[in-house]
Design goal:
mainly alpha, Endonuclease III, domain 1, 2 domains, two-stranded antiparallel ribbon, 2 strands, 59% helix
């Protein structure tokens, strides 16, 4: 039976260039450093559609059609009906606006605001967090925002859990279903194997096949811009 590290190394070898993307995420530099786009991304992602084929094109469309929305405070006060011309789901926009409003109260600089929030946020008490209490924000969205705010951690979404629990089974270990326990386990796996938790997390999405190509290969150019 292969060791846990051998299995993880094999997966990670399939995603060259991942480190650079994760570096940008932890520096809060995704989407050209626009925290507005990061929040919109998280709100769209929360409803479970395909990230690269559904979410990313709509975030780009939002960026192009609402170029005047440059700061979190702008998004917080924008009319939902106007925004729904890009993305129909009202809950996504209400969530995005509420997240933007709260973060905008922390600092006039959007990047400092999300990083200030993320650095003080706690996984175990996520439900009591000002962001965690926002309607529509689950633990997956909470973790995604923390990652974009500079926290090296993992999102417990279905793909991440499926891949990492598969790795555990392959190594003769028990899978973990509880979200918080899973996050801590995944963080420990990454560190013990010589990687960052965020790299293990993104790997699980990028090794998925879409058509005849792996996502890492299919979307390598796109990743550089988001």
């Amino acid at each position: 039976m292969p060791s846990l590290k051998e299995i993880v190394d094999n997966y990670m070898s399939k995603v060259p260039g991942l480190k650079e993307h994760c570096d940008r995420c932890l520096r809060t530099e995704r989407w050209g450093g626009s925290v507005v786009l990061m929040v919109v991304d998280a709100a769209f992602t929360s409803i479970g559609l395909n990230y690269f084929t559904a979410v990313v094109p709509k975030v780009i469309e939002f960026k192009e059609r609402f170029s005047e929305i440059k700061r979190l405070s702008d998004l917080a006060h924008c009319d939902v009906e106007k925004l729904r011309s890009v993305w129909k789901n009202r809950r996504s926009w209400e969530m995005a606006k509420n997240i933007a409003f709260y973060l905008s109260t922390l600092d006039e600089d959007d990047r400092r605001a999300i990083r200030r929030w993320a650095s003080s946020s706690k996984l175990e008490s996520w439900r009591d967090d000002p962001i965690g209490r926002i309607k529509g924000v689950g633990i997956v969205t909470f973790q995604y925002l923390r990652m974009m705010g500079g926290i090296d951690t993992v999102m417990p979404d279905k793909i991440v859990k499926r891949v990492i629990n598969g790795i555990l089974r392959e190594a003769g270990m028990e899978p973990v279903e509880d979200d918080i326990e899973f996050i801590r386990k995944a963080e420990n796996i990454a560190i013990s194997c010589g990687y960052r938790p965020i790299e293990l997390c993104w790997m699980t999405w990028l090794v998925q096949q879409e058509g005849k190509k792996m996502r890492m290969e299919k979307y390598s150019d796109l990743l550089q811009n988001i």
